[in-house]
Amino acid sequence: MKAKSLRIFSLSAIVLAALAIQTGCKQGNGNQDYDLSKIDTVVTGTVTAELTDAPNVPKPLTYTSPKRVMVKLDVIEKVMNISDSSQYTFWTFGGHVPGKFIRVRQGDLVDFTLYNHPDSKLTHNIDLHAVTGPGGGAEASSTAPGQSTHFQFRALVPGLFIYHCATAPVPLHIANGMYGMILVEPQSGMPKVDKEYYVMQGDFYTKGKFDAPGLQDFDEEKALAENPDYVLFNGKVRSLVGKGALTAKVGQTVRLYVGNGGPNMVSSFHVIGEIFDKVYQEGGSEVNRGVQTTLIPSGGASIVDMKMEVPGTFVLVDHSIFRAFNKGAIGQLKVSGKEDPSIFKPIKN
Amino acid sequence: MAMKKNMIPLLLFFFLVACDSQPKSAFTGSVESKVSAVGTIPQESIFNLTDTFTTQDNKEVSLNQLEGKPTVMAMIFTHCTYACPRLTADVQNIEKKLGKKAEDVNFVLVSFDSERDFPTRLNEFKKEMFLDNNFTLLHGDDDAVRTLSVLLNVQFQKNSDGDFSHSNIISVLDKKGDLVFQKEGINADHTATLEQINDLLK
Amino acid sequence: MMIRNSAILIILFSFTFSTGFVGGERNYAEKKMVRIPGGNFTPFFRLPNSQPIHLKPFLMDETAVTNQEFLEFVKANPQWRRSRVNRLFADSNYLKYWESDLSVGEKNKVLYNSPVVYVSWFAARAYAKWRGKRLPSVAEWEMAGEARPLNTKYKKLTDLILAWYQKPNPKVLPPVKSTYKNAYGLYDMHGLVWEWTFDFNSFIKSGDSRANTQDELQLFCASSSLYVKDKDDYASFLRYSYRGSLKGNFCIGNLGFRCAKDLK
Q1: Are the beta carbons of C210 and A168 separated by less than 8 Å?
Q2: By CB atoms within 10 Å of each CB, which of A119, B172, C46, C226 scores lowest?
Q3: Cα gap C119→B138, rounded to integer Å
Q4: From the first residue on, what is the mean pLDDT of each consecutive set of 10 residues in chain C (264 residues)?
Q5: Sign, Cα dihedral of B91, B97, B99, B102
Q6: What is the pLDDT of residues A244-278, one digit of tens each?
Q7: Hey, which residues does C215 pair with through a beta bridge?
Q8: Parallel, antiparallel, or unpaired: how do β-strands A109-116 and A148-154 relate?
């Protein structure tokens, strides 16, 4: 992941390549990308980060020098539907599962406040995998109900990172939905695409079976046995289906920022009927091309780009396929536009 | 509100009648002689703690007698074999680096161990560790020690063998007892600690 | 010292009479305390070679301290009124739901017999002292709280606790004795509010919970690492994490207290 870092990002964006040259040679030995003396770190001005709920992603960043970026996340415990008939007490970063998407730029100084809502029952904290520092921020952010904590970190390494609560017992906090993602754009920017979406997988363990009616308690035994009742995209059965489906037009390039909060399952992420043109492997800077299924570890992420050549409904799944068929790991990407029989056409007998 | 207004002349009265000119070194006065402090200590000052402690010289004191000099404070216990001697050495290093200015700073070590660290033992420890007279070692009862630990965000727990698990924190208080700086860890980098103390001495 | 404090107290006392009392009047009938037998207690976090802690028998309040009871304390101790309390000892949320300094308020009538919340550790400790009592230690509280529940649908205590932890705070805090009674005769040890303990800050944590179960030689004096009594006991983890995030002046909406006392 370290080796080719910025090179690949800048290769794909001719306009931004000029910028990359301006800020110095970013190629060759990857270590220099993360060496503070080699990246632009002079902070000019303060911005407040745009935070979005899945499946939306904050707009690409337009500033070209490091900023102080203010980020405030609220921890909210609340009952929501996990499926049509079942409710669950989710613990969230910002009121939804997954938590708010944060977008910053390499070299930014992130001024982070974690606020735990006064109605919370429990103490929470945050570990951002994008942080270089003790506990990823967890040590500095143990926050009792009604209180807030504050720390600052430098976004050193570009990539897509997950964040999660790391308060004991960590597995329970994650199992209840306490995860989200932070994107650190390289200083040369991300190649432009037409549509960006935020998808995050997670597994859930309830006393009742899949879609059993009523408020469901967490089932510790099932969680320890790693036997989930639900494997979901964006925290709810059918969240990306029907009205919630992702959309695009023929000819557009779609980028998915895909994370996996776990706590247990590793995702075999696949989009039925498409091939990923690019996969930023494990959310880092190494790009693989022409990929059918990409593995997203628990506590990890991946960025996939695909150009939509033909219309239709393309189905997002965890290709550990029982999860898609029986446990909810399914979503839709609906593409509208002109057919292209030279690429695909059904033939009647 | 009416109540508050009435209080002011009364507090002023206390302040005026009890004004004294004690030399401002650690715990030179007796507890009573510090009545002057009423009303002069800011709200957030650790000196608002009313519990009393006993020094290695068997003198009963309260923390507000530290007023007038910045204070470097750590909590330890003398039977500790690992962390506390090192933490104490860290405080000594801070003292050394201050040079002559160290005389204008209170160095205070407060023991967690209310059952073993009585003044005699504290005095022994002071000699064992070659602590000079800028240092004061304090014994307090369970209540006083726990309260101070809460104010200083120091975590500690007594184990069944009588020893303690504890966090290692060096705190800096300003002349009025406000907690202005803390550094956690043994053998930590105390550059910022020294900067803080030097600022307070200006 | 003593002379100074009592002088001020007397002065302040003379003013309290003019401000008048509103709401929740009732004399403090001696609150019922329950005898908790002593015994050996194994802390949840402990050193590998440490022996269980021996606890002497003690008395514990049957329920958490209520708003009504706390009001009496505030009336008698002006320095603990909302408008006068030192921020060092209670943050700005202190008793924030009360109507005024000396009144829980007519609109909060339903809360008179509910646990007082939004109180700091310092305030809880001062209350206990004023009643001639003290706060229970973590070990005492945990031991008392481990007793078997008498009248609940849950087979295991941990199920009851986990179910409560997973429900958001109720809009209106129910009164004491509204959850369950345990085998010692204590009410609501779990399921109503969190409770302050004397040595709440004894949980040695780095803030990052994952470090607690690993070798952390530098953090500890006596030995190498902390062990957890039962790593599947998620309820205890949650409780200790909560305690570990507190500071003495924090005032929180689901945090109250009850008192303990030595047996003579």
Answers
A1: yes
A2: A119
A3: 30
A4: 45 39 50 94 71 91 97 96 95 96 92 97 97 96 93 84 84 94 96 96 57 36 49 82 92 97 92
A5: negative
A6: 999 999 999 999 999 999 999 999 999 999 999 99
A7: C225
A8: antiparallel
> pLDDT tens-digit profile of B178-192?
999 999 888 889 999
Put simply, the answer to whether C5 touches B43 (Cβ < 8 Å) is no
Please tell me the distance from the alpha carbon of residue B156 to that of residue C222, in angstroms, as a whole number. 12
Looking at residue C135, its amino acid is L
Helix-then-strand count for chain C, H and E: 6, 9
What is the CB neighbour count within 10 angstroms for residue A101? 27
8 A C-beta contact, residue A279 and residue A257: no
B48 touches chain C (CB under 8 A): yes
Q: Measured over all CA atoms, what is the biggest interatomic distance in chain B, rounded to whole angstroms?
A: 56
In chain C, residues with a C-beta closer than 8 Å to the C-beta of A140 are 207
Q: CA gyration radius for chain B?
A: 17
DSSP readout, A34-74?
Answer: G-TTTS------EEEPP-B-TT--PPPP---S--EEEEEEE
Q: What are the backbone angles phi and psi of residue C72, rounded to the nearest 5°?
A: -60, -40
Give CA–CA dist B121/B79, Å, rounded.
10
Enter the tokens of residue C115.
């646990």
Spatial separation of the C-alpha atoms in residues B112 and B140, rounded to whole Å: 8
Is residue B9 included in any domain, yes or no? no
Entry pTM: 0.81
Mind telling me how many Å the CA of C30 is from chain B's nearest CA?
25
**Measured distance CA(A214)–CA(A81) in Å, rounded:** 9
> Each residue of A279-331: pLDDT tens digit?
999 999 999 999 999 999 999 999 999 999 999 999 999 999 999 999 999 99
ipTM reported for the complex surpasses 0.85:
no
List b or e across C228-241, with b for residues whose CB sees 16 or more CB atoms inside 10 angstroms.
beeeebbbbbbbbb
With beta carbons under 8 A apart, name residues in chain C contacting A134: 206, 208
Query: Tokens for B55?
Result: 């020094």
Question: B4-42 pLDDT, tens per residue?
Answer: 444 444 444 444 444 433 434 466 544 443 434 445 788
In a domain, B61, yes or no: yes
Query: From the candidates C11, C134, C201, which should be mutated to test the interface with B, based on the most B CB atoms within 10 A?
Result: C201
Nearest CA distance, B85 vs chain C (angstrom): 10
Give the CB-side neighbour count of residue C161, counting CA atoms within 13 A.
22
**Termini Cα distance of chain B:** 38
Q: Which residue of C has its CA nearest to A126?
A: C208
What are the tokens at A253? 């390039």
**Which DSSP category does C153 fall into?**
S
Extended strands (E) in C16-150? 33-36, 39-41, 45-46, 53-55, 58-61
- 8 Å CB contact of B165 and C222: yes
Of B94, B105, B87, whose CA–CA distance to B154 is shortest? B87
Measured in angstroms, the CA of B100 and the nearest CA of chain C are apart by 32
In this complex, is the C-beta atom of C211 within 8 Å of any C-beta atom belonging to chain A? yes
Instruction: Spell out which residues of chain C touch residue B167, defining contact as CB-CB under 8 Å.
Output: 204, 219
> Is residue B5 domain-resident?
no
Structure-block tokens of residue A117: 């809502």
Tokens of C195: 């409770």
What CATH code is carried by the domain that includes residue B94? 3.40.30.10
Place of tokens 């977008």: A103
For the stretch B42-61, what's the b/e string if a residue is b when 16 or more beta carbons lie within 10 angstroms of its beta carbon? eebbbbbbeeebbbbeebeb
Q: How many domains does chain B have?
A: 1
Per the CB < 8 A criterion, the answer to whether A94 and A100 are in contact is yes
